[in-house]
């Protein structure tokens, strides 16, 4: 009794705690809803000042709501499980259930209703927070583009340049004062000379690293690879090595100089940003220089990734490096102006002049004469003899063979806008366009190189997976090419998806908003009452499907190489079992993947009904062939390796697939036969149960031969052949008295009917030799020719004498015409 009371008290305490927890959660949900309503009112009245802080607040509310949603969903699943355990409620006319059971059912239904209301409210809070975040992000983007498109003073304004020069003098004075102060402090402690020596040594080391390191990489790796044939993979590797050889010393040397300056106290808090920006600009310049060296101006023309002539490749590379250098110098000077408090006019001038310079360089870089195959630039050698057509007409004529024409036109448009906008007062817009173009080009260059490296790595990996030193069958080559294609396609899709967030950031979206977009795309979102599956769930389902399918393939290979190989089963039986295992694994993988995706398997009945209608109308033959294929695999009237004869042809069964069966003829051609034909029509299978078969060799001898001697010779030849079985024994059949010979047949059973042609050939050689040695003649057909009439003579009588003509006698025919003898053949 006491134990029962204790149990009831514990249950009551647990229920009370659960109720208190539900009350706290309900209050938190209502509090979040009220806070979101207040934020929506502020956003509607445009009463928000700090958009970034408001976004963080909304994200905190949304994350807290997501954290509350999962426990509610677990409790809903628990309550539904309890209701299912109670069974359905009694229907009308059925006896009522027990009062305790009825009370428990009502309590569970009330709890379920409350939990579902909480779930709906939490989802509403999540959706509302997401909508507010999107609205705030849209306003921030609108404000950004409003500032960018705002017109200001032109780049040729004298007042702008006067303010810029004044700011530059002030900035130079502050820098000079800072260096003088640093020198004075070092001189007081007699540390100026060692400090200068350390800085000079760091600079010297960073400069000297370029030559030896680049030469070592070239001698150790690039030169050795360039001895071989320039394949696409080797070109990418050489370009990557050149880029690393050029940028690596700069990265290391820059770090050495930065640490030396920091150790000597020359870089303070304000100067650290300047040094860091300088280092970034140098690294970008070196990376791009190394990249375009492999792309356009490799030491040997055949090792360039992009086809270009020597002079045009060097010009294009110089334009690209100049663009990076201009942008890097502008970034460093702007950082210096900001650190010294002399911004404003200096930044406007730097933005406008760099945009105009980058626009001019980009225009030169996008010229058709620099990239179009066969075109001669204005400074090429062929310009003196044959100049290219001017204007858009020449470009339109070459458009069909110039695949980069749209890209070059877009770049030319950007170049014109960037170069002209600063002179009309749109300096911010020109700087926005050029900076986004610069970062986008850098990002695409890095992504292109990484993509090319991964694609060639995939080609190399699939090539290594093939049997080394063995002859690769054409089917395996096709399969490898198929795998390489899909591997490259997957790499392209991954890089494309990875670039989308960066492109959105460059377009002006805040990183926090881009992160929300990626989160929603990856973890799913809801449109109205429809829940779009998350990319994460889809990828997980696909991964499960591929994993189960891969395990099935491994199991098939393991069984084929292990138990099946040593089991003594027929090869066709092994193929049938392996194929059935593959079908079962595919179905299991599909069901597991669909279940992981969240699809209710109970709905398969609806899908099966829809499919049955489709099958009844248009898929009868497909399903017929599929079912016939299963019958072939289970019943095994034919199997892989069998020699069969059908109405479509004769050959060896190579593969029984879902829809059809492949037969390879003895001429090495393939016949694809629908499985239903093999089930519904008669098929001759020479190797159904076993490979034992009978061969027959007909032999004709002259009438003067001894038949018993002939029989002994034929049996001896058959018994001496190694492939002829002793049981059943070979035997001789005296088939007939032929017109010119005595016709015999030697019939013998051989181990493998597939060797029947060679066995028959061997027996013919042996029989011919044996009969010749025994003096038995093999005759040829003979005919006796009897001439009844000759031209100009009377018919011959019985003894060959001319007979008297009796034209009036009954039955006498007309005389034969001259020149046409009446001949009769007697065999």
TrEMBL record:
InterPro entries found in the cross-reference section: LSM_dom_sf (IPR010920), MS_channel_C (IPR049278), MscS-like_channel (IPR052702), MscS_beta-dom_sf (IPR023408), MscS_channel_2nd (IPR006685), MscS_channel_C_sf (IPR011066), MscS_channel_CS (IPR006686), MscS_channel_TM-2 (IPR011014)
Amino acid composition bias (Low complexity), ranges on this chain: 791-811
Single GO cellular component term: plasma membrane
Coiled-coil residues: 98-125
Span of domain Mechanosensitive ion channel MscS C-terminal: 695-778
Residue stretches spanning the membrane: 192-213, 234-258, 278-296, 316-333, 345-365, 410-430, 436-454, 489-512, 532-555, 576-599, 605-634
Keyword Aminoacyl-tRNA synthetase set for record: no
Keywords: Cell membrane, Coiled coil, Membrane, Signal, Transmembrane, Transmembrane helix
Domain (Mechanosensitive ion channel MscS): residue spans on this chain: 622-688
Spans annotated as Disordered: 376-397, 789-827
Membrane topology qualifier: Multi-pass membrane protein
Gene3D superfamilies (UniProt xref): 1.10.287.1260, 2.30.30.60, 3.30.70.100
Chief location: membrane
Organism superkingdom: Bacteria
Keyword Transferase set for record: no
Signal peptide from the UniProt entry: 1-20
Subcellular location: Cell membrane
GO molecular function, one term: mechanosensitive monoatomic ion channel activity
Family: Belongs to the MscS (TC 1.A.23) family.
This protein's name: Small-conductance mechanosensitive channel
């Amino acid at each position: 009794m006491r134990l029962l009371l204790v149990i009831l008290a514990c249950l009551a305490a647990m229920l009370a705690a659960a109720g208190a927890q539900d009350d706290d959660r309900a209050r938190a949900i209502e509090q979040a809803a009220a806070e979101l309503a207040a934020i929506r009112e502020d956003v509607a009245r445009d009463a928000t000042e700090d958009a970034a802080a408001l976004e963080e607040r909304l994200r905190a509310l949304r994350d807290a709501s997501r954290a509350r949603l999962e426990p509610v969903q677990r409790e809903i699943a628990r309550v539904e499980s309890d209701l299912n355990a109670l069974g359905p409620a009694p229907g009308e006319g059925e006896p009522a259930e027990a009062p305790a059971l009825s009370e428990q059912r009502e309590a569970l239904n009330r709890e379920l209703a409350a939990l579902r209301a909480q779930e709906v409210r939490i989802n509403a809070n999540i959706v509302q927070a997401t909508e507010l975040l999107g609205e705030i992000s849209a306003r921030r983007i609108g404000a950004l583009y409003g500032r960018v498109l705002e017109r200001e003073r032109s780049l040729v304004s004298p007042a702008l340049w006067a303010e810029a020069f004044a700011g530059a003098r002030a900035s130079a004075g502050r820098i000079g004062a800072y260096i003088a102060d640093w020198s004075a402090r070092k001189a007081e402690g007699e540390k100026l000379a060692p400090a200068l020596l350390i800085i000079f040594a760091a600079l010297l080391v960073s400069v000297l690293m370029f030559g030896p390191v680049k030469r070592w990489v070239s001698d150790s790796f690039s030169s050795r690879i360039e001895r071989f044939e320039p394949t696409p993979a080797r070109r990418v590797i050489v370009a990557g090595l050149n880029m690393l050889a050029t940028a690596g010393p700069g990265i290391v040397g820059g770090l050495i100089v930065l640490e030396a300056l920091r150790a000597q106290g020359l870089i303070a808090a304000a100067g650290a940003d300047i040094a860091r920006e300088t280092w970034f600009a140098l690294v970008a310049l070196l990376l791009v220089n190394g990249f375009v060296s492999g792309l356009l101006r490799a030491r040997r023309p055949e090792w360039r990734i992009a086809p270009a002539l020597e002079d045009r490749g060097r010009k294009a590379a110089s334009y690209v490096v100049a663009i990076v250098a201009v942008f890097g110098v502008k970034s460093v000077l702007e950082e210096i102006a900001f650190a010294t408090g002399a911004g404003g006019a200096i930044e406007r001038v730097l933005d406008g002049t760099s945009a105009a310079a980058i626009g001019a360089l980009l225009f030169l870089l996008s010229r058709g004469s620099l990239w179009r195959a066969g075109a001669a630039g204005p400074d090429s050698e062929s310009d003196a003899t044959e100049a290219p057509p001017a204007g858009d007409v020449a470009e339109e004529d070459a458009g069909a063979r110039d695949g980069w024409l749209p890209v070059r036109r877009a770049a030319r448009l950007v170049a014109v806008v960037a170069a002209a906008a600063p002179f009309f007062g749109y300096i911010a817009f020109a700087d926005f366009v050029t900076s986004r173009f610069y970062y986008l080009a850098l990002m695409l260059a890095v992504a292109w190189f990484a993509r090319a490296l991964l694609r060639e790595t995939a080609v190399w990996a699939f090539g290594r997976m093939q049997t080394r030193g063995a002859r690769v069958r054409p089917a395996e080559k096709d399969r490898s090419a198929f795998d390489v294609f899909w591997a490259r396609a997957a790499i392209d899709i991954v890089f494309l998806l990875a670039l989308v967030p960066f492109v959105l950031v460059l377009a002006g979206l805040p990183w926090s908003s881009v992160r929300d977009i990626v989160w929603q795309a990856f973890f799913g979102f809801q449109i109205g009452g429809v829940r779009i599956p998350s990319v994460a769930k889809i990828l997980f389902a696909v991964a499960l499907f591929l994993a189960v399918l891969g395990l099935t393939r491994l199991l098939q290979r393991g069984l084929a190489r292990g138990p099946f190989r040593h089991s003594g089963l027929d090869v066709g039986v092994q193929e049938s079992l392996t194929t059935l295992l593959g079908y079962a694994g595919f179905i299991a993988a599909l069901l597991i993947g669909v279940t992981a995706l969240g699809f209710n398997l109970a709905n398969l009945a609806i899908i099966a009904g829809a499919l049955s209608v489709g099958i009844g109308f248009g898929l009868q033959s497909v399903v017929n062939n599929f079912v016939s294929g299963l019958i072939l695999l289970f019943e095994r009237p034919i199997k892989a390796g069998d020699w069969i004869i059908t109405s479509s042809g004769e050959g060896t069964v190579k593969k029984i697939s879902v829809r059809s069966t492949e037969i390879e003829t003895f001429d090495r051609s393939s016949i694809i036969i629908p499985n239903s034909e093999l089930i519904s029509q008669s098929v001759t299978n020479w190797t159904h149960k076993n490979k034992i078969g009978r061969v027959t060799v007909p032999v004709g001898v002259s009438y003067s031969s001894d038949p018993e001697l002939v029989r002994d010779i034929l049996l001896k030849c058959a018994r001496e052949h190694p492939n002829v079985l002793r049981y059943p024994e070979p035997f001789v059949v005296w088939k007939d008295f032929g017109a010119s010979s005595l016709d015999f047949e030697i019939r013998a059973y051989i181990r493998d009917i597939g060797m029947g042609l060679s066995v028959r050939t061997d027996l013919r050689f042996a029989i011919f030799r044996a009969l010749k040695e025994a003096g038995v003649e093999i005759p040829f057909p003979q005919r006796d020719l009897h001439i009844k009439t000759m031209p100009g003579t009377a018919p011959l009588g019985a003894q060959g004498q001319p007979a008297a003509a009796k034209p009036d006698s009954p039955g006498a025919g007309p005389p034969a015409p001259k020149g046409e003898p009446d001949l009769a053949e007697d065999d």
